[in-house]
Design goal:
heterodimer; A: alpha/beta; Rossmann fold; six-stranded mixed β-sheet; 20 strands; globular; B: mainly alpha; ABC transporter involved in vitamin B12 uptake, BtuC; two-stranded antiparallel sheet; 73% helix
Chain lengths: 514, 346
């Protein structure tokens, strides 16, 4: 690693490296940004906050040259720039870490990291040298614990993909580096490493932009905070001049002091019971969810939580133990079986696994209840619209009509469409895997309220979440998983972030079933 | 309990919804045809105007019949190909299945009569489709490769059973003659077959849960599976249906030529069917496409061929024109999608 490049490119501390002035952008009649100013300074972390739809992503895309602004001026290192595509901004030393990075599926992590940067020596490129280099770079930032250079792209978890994307940027020694909600797919351990990396970059004089919804991170990392709302600049403050409530007020225009409002109640009969359940990924799981109860499943990424959820709904096979639904032993061979038994499942990867992006809100909401609405094989479009309308109103899904394409909705509203699909099914058990990932504060509060309301109506709810405050705020009981098994169960009255983390980092005897 | 963030935008939305105009007749016609099909309609009108102004014979009712019967067979295959494409797959073997069905229908007819000939060909078509589906689902072979293989294999089987020659003479049988040259209320029976199948498929895709689920599987198969759709059943079912329709196309080939044709009547039909589906707006990545679009594309291609023949355009140039039309049409569709021009298209 050649540090002279860094020193040459990095500016003097607190000098403005990137400045955007009076940026405006519209798409047809929709105004995405008007008069937005942003400054990123060398050796500082500037947080960019705002609800989904506030214009953060558009702003980042303008910085990289993905979009061209309709008005305003961009300066990098004092010079006016006009990037027409990302390769130009990259060459100028500006990198944005994508939230959902593109990974080449059939090649190794090493090749994925150096994709586009591979300089061949002679005619052939030296795979082993590349892997060695990747191992060294990964180790430098402590990421060698998360991913090995030899792993094939398609086998990477969301967190590992994020690490690859971050490495790609870092090896380029950029002057400016922006993170777009980097921790949304990371567990706590990976997040901690990322924060260390960001601190290192900052100390080396890089100007860091950091888009996130998570207050804790912002206060931990940011030197300055820029808040956007509805495409406009609300303001930029130094971190020490603001606090949590102030920021929320700036973002949503009012206080959201109470994100969680769980009405705890006595739970009913068990709806789901797992007795010593094992699958290819997890083993010896004992777990119970009762009617009217919200049960949280915490753990680090890779603990086997998502795999367990998929086994519960019949998408992955249960290889040992007993699963009981409402007291009866079941063995689901496909999700269709679990749906018939009254179980709804919102998977972790909303776009890849839950939504049909190019179809309408109505199509997506009625997907699982289509046979119920149909007369014989004939669908009732009227009935579907009525159902869709009901849940659009009930869940406050912001869409101009039932016929809007789902890809045009914001992340929070897309997640509500997934919830609506299962509410329409009237489930007795709802399995939610990371229900608020990539969702803004306002929509988060709404989703929490929906979960609470469902529990009050007697629905049993199983929630997987990597956000500890979320698990703590929502759950009546918390199962903590590590290494493919449950390492402990905590009651909501006794659970703390510390006690969950301690259990989540328990060393288990060898990776359970791999 | 209340989640207060929603108020601000909701009032604006409510107004928007309230202000939406009642659908007028014009708008309803538009939604039936589909906005994306307007360009096809315009192309058809322009083509008709150009050809008609050069050769008035073009407008004769006889010529309309000629066009109709000429596109009937490839139209059938284009319609089912559209369904396969919407599901996110492809079936290149349809032409070979049609050829195989053509010879077997004629051969069974010679020994057992027209009814068994038709039933036998249909059964064989279903079987061919089932084999395609099984190779794809259980053998985990990409649909293009799987049906590329059966394209060759089914053609070989047709040549084997027929010894590579036309088989059986159906030209004297009432049923086959009616199929080839008969009319019903003035419309040739070949065209009726296409109309009935197209309407049936349109209704299935648009108004039944089966059709909706085919779009869903093509749009996102994982999401469909997790929503309880038995996607294997859909894949097998669509391929079997495609096999059966290809067999019907084969029977029509037999009827038109008066004997079973192992190869000559059906070769190249698979590409024509994909051309029409793509021209009609079906996206090869799945989840998108309509029967209406495909039928308009079939008509457009039929008029183009017929018109150029009437205008004495060299057959080689006709191929160039068809290819050019497809490329231009797809480029226009892609421009509308606004995708960035980097790498392979999505």
């Amino acid at each position: 690693m050649n540090d002279s490049i860094r020193t040459e490119r990095a500016g003097r501390a607190h000098e403005v490296v990137l400045s955007a002035k009076q940026i405006g952008k519209h798409f047809g009649p929709v105004v995405a940004l008007t008069g937005v100013d942003l400054e990123l300074r060398a050796g500082e972390v500037t947080a960019i906050m705002g609800e989904n739809g506030a214009g953060k992503s558009t702003l980042l895309k303008i910085l990289t040259g993905d979009y061209r602004p309709d008005s305003g001026e961009l300066r990098l290192g004092g010079e006016v720039t006009d990037f027409s595509e990302p390769s130009q901004s990259r060459a100028a030393g500006l990198r944005v870490i994508a939230q959902e990075p593109e990974i080449v599926p059939h090649v190794s992590v090493a090749e994925n990291i150096y994709v586009g940067a591979i300089r061949s020596q002679g005619l052939l490129f030296n795979r082993r040298a590349l892997e060695k280099r990747a191992a060294k770079d990964l180790a430098r930032y402590g990421f060698d614990r998360i991913v090995s250079p030899q792993t094939i792209g398609s086998r990477l978890s969301a967190a590992q993909r994020q690490v690859v994307e971050i490495m790609r940027a870092v090896i380029d020694k950029p002057r400016v580096i922006c993170f777009d909600e980097p921790t949304s797919s990371l567990g706590d351990e990976e997040s901690a490493l990322l924060f260390d990396l960001i601190a290192t970059l900052r100390d080396e004089g890089v100007a860091v932009g950091y888009v996130s919804h998570r207050m804790n991170e912002i206060f931990r990392l940011a030197d300055r905070i820029t808040v956007l709302r509805d495409g406009k600049l609300v303001g930029t403050k130094k971190t020490e001049d603001t606090d949590h409530n102030d920021l929320v007020r700036m973002m949503v225009g009012r206080d959201l002091s109470q994100l969680f409002s769980r009405e705890r109640q006595t739970a009913g009969e068990p709806v789901l019971e797992l007795r010593d359940v094992g699958t290819d990924d997890v083993s010896h799981i004992d777990l119970t969810v009762r009617a009217g109860e919200v049960v949280g499943v915490a753990g680090l990424v890779g603990a086997g939580r998502s795999e367990l959820m998929k086994a519960i709904v019949g998408d992955l096979p249960v290889t040992s133990g007993t699963v009981l639904v409402k007291g009866r032993p079941v063995s689901f061979r496909s999700p269709a079986d679990s749906i018939a038994a009254g179980i709804g499942f919102a998977p972790e990867e909303r776009k890849a696994e839950a939504l049909i992006m190019q179809r309408t809100v109505r199509d997506n909401i009625v997907l699982a209840v289509l046979p119920k609405l149909a007369r014989g094989i004939f669908v009732s479009e009227k009935g579907e619209r009525a159902i869709a309308r009901t849940y659009i109103d009930q869940l406050r899904i912001r869409t101009p009509s039932t016929e809007q394409l789902v890809k045009n909705l914001s992340g929070g509203n897309q997640q509500k469409v997934v919830l609506a699909r299962w509410l329409a099914h009237n489930p007795s058990l709802l399995v939610l895997d990371e229900p608020t990932r990539g969702v803004d504060v306002g929509a988060k509060a709404e989703i929490y309220a929906i979960i609470d309301q469902l529990a009050q109506q007697g629905v049993a709810i199983l929630v997987v979440s990597s956000e500890l405050p979320e698990v703590l705020g929502l759950s009546d009981r918390i199962y903590v998983m590590a290494g493919g098994t449950v390492t402990g169960t905590l009651d909501c009255t006794e659970a703390t972030e510390e006690s969950i983390l301690a259990l989540a980092m328990t060393e288990t005897r060898a990776p359970a079933a791999r | 309990m209340s989640a207060p963030t929603a108020q601000r935008p909701e009032t604006a939305l409510a107004k928007e919804v309230a202000a939406a105009p009642r659908p007028t007749l014009g708008r309803r016609i538009m939604t039936t045809i589909g906005v994306q099909n307007i360009s096809l309609l315009i192309a058809i009108v322009a083509l008709v105007a150009v050809i008609g102004s050069q050769n008035p014979l073009f407008f004769g009712i006889d010529n309309v019949r000629v066009i109709g019967t000429a596109v009937a067979v490839s139209g059938l295959l284009a319609v089912v190909q559209t369904v396969v494409i919407i599901m996110g797959a492809l079936d290149i073997s349809v032409g070979s299945i049609a050829g195989l069905a053509s010879v077997t229908s004629a051969m069974i007819f010679t020994v057992a009569g027209p009814l068994l000939g038709v039933v036998g060909a249909l059964g064989l078509g279903l079987l061919c489709g089932l084999v395609n589906g099984c190779i794809i689902v259980f053998g985990r072979v990409n649909p293009v490769i799987a049906t590329l293989a059966t394209l060759a294999a089914y053609k070989g089987v047709a040549q084997l059973v027929s010894d590579g020659r036309a088989q059986g003479y159906t030209g004297a049988d009432g049923f086959f003659v009616f199929l080839a040259r008969g009319t019903l209320v003035g419309i040739p029976s070949l065209i009726w077959v296409l109309i009935v199948l197209a309407v049936l498929m349109h209704v299935v895709l648009r108004y039944t849960s089966i059709g909706r689920n085919i779009y869903a599987v093509g749009g996102n198969d994982v999401a469909s599976r997790l929503a309880g759709i038995n996607i294997n059943r859909y894949i097998l079912g669509v391929y079997m249906m495609t096999g059966a329709v290809a067999a019907i196309a084969g029977i029509l080939i037999t009827a038109r030529t008066g004997s079973g044709q192992p190869v000559s009547g059906s070769e190249g039909l698979e590409l024509e069917s994909i051309t029409a589906a793509a021209l009609g707006g079906a996206a090869l990545k799945g989840g998108k496409g309509t029967i209406m679009g495909t039928i308009l594309a079939v008509i457009l291609l039929g008029i183009l061929t017929n018109g150029m023949t009437l205008l004495d355009v060299n057959a080689f140039w006709q191929n160039v024109a068809k290819g050019g039309l497809l490329v231009v049409a797809v480029i226009i569709q892609q421009l509308r999608s606004g995708e960035r021009r980097i790498g392979l298209p999505a």
